[in-house]
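User: Show me a protein chain along with its predicted structure.
Assistant: Here is one chain, sequence first, then C-alpha cells.
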Amino acid sequence: MPQLIAKGLPKARLLSQTVLSESSADMGWSSCGSWLAAVTTSGVVHLVDGETGAQHTEWLAHENGALALCWHPRLPLLASSGQDGHVRLWHVAPDHSCALLIDIPLTEDPANNWIEHLSWRPDGAQLAAACGKKIHLLALDGTREGEYTFPGGTVGALCWRPKGAQLAAAGYGGIRVYNVLDRNSRSQALKWKGSLLSLNWSPDAQVIAAGCQDNSVHFWRLPKLSDAMMSGFTYKPVQLSWSKNSRWLLTGGSSQLILWSFDKKGPEGKPPVTVDFHQEAICAIDFANSGQMLATGCRAGKIAFWNQVGDSTPALEAQLDSRVEQLAWSPRKNVKRLASTSRHGTLSLWEAIAA
C-alpha cells in the first residue's frame, strides 16, 4: 500500500550570507533600509548592502568587545557601545565608507564600564545609553544632556515612548518612566517585586510590557497604571514583539508561538492563542514594518515566516547553522526582506518568497 509522505514547507529565498568573525552581539537596519549592520562580541562591525547583502566594509569598533548598536531613526548614523565605557557614533557615507564621528567616554571605572543598552529618541534628538545603574542622555554632538540613576541597580532594558520624549527603564523592582523634556519632574514608578529583563512599549503607547526573571510577562495599561501578569512560561520570556496595530503581543519563553490579544476584552482572563511549529524554544521574534507578516526563530536554528497573526502554519521556513540570535525585517515599505544572525556567526539575508 502506498504511504503518504509529509512534505516540508517551501524554503525562503536566500539572498546572501556573510560569515562574521564571531557571534553577533547586536544587529539592525538603517532607517532608509540601505544598510544592515551587525556587531560581533569581539567588537567588529560588519556593514552590508540592504539590497544585495554584499559586504561593504568592516571595522573594529570596540577593542574590548561590543554589546549594542543602534541606528539613528533618520540619519545615516550608527551608535555602538561595548565593554570599554565608550559610546561611539559612526557616519556612513553614500559610497558605503564609514568614519568615526564622535567618541564619548561615559566612565573609566573598569569594574562598571559595560554599556549594554542604546536607544535613540523617536525624533532622533537624543541617544539614551545605560551603563550599570546610570542612564545617560547624549545629544547628536556628543554633549551630555542629562543623567538618571535607576533605583533598582543595573538597568535591564531601555525603551522610548513611541512619538514622545518619555524614556522607560526596567530592572529590579519594576520600571521608571522619565520625562526627558522636564528635568525637574519626578519619574513615574511602575513597581514590581522582581527583576525585569526586557521592555517593549506598544505602538499606540497604551501598554508597556516587560519580560521577568521569574518566567512571566508583566504589563501596565497607561495612563491608568492598571497592571496584570501572564505566567506559565517554560523559559524566561525576554522576547517581546507588538503587531503594528497594537492588537497582539508575541512572547518568547516557549517552543509554541504565543499570541496575547490586547483587544477591548483581553488579555486579562483569556487564554492566549498558541501555535505549534518550532521543536525548540523560540528565541527571536519580529513583526514586519508593513503588512502583517512576522518571523520567529528558535534554538534549533529554524526560522518561520508567517503571513499573518493567527495562521496555523507558516508560509515559509529557513534553516540556520545554529541557534537564531536576531531577526529584523527591512524598514522599507513593500519589501519583504528579513535579516538573521546565528550563534555560529552567520549573517543571512532572506526574501520572503519561495526559493
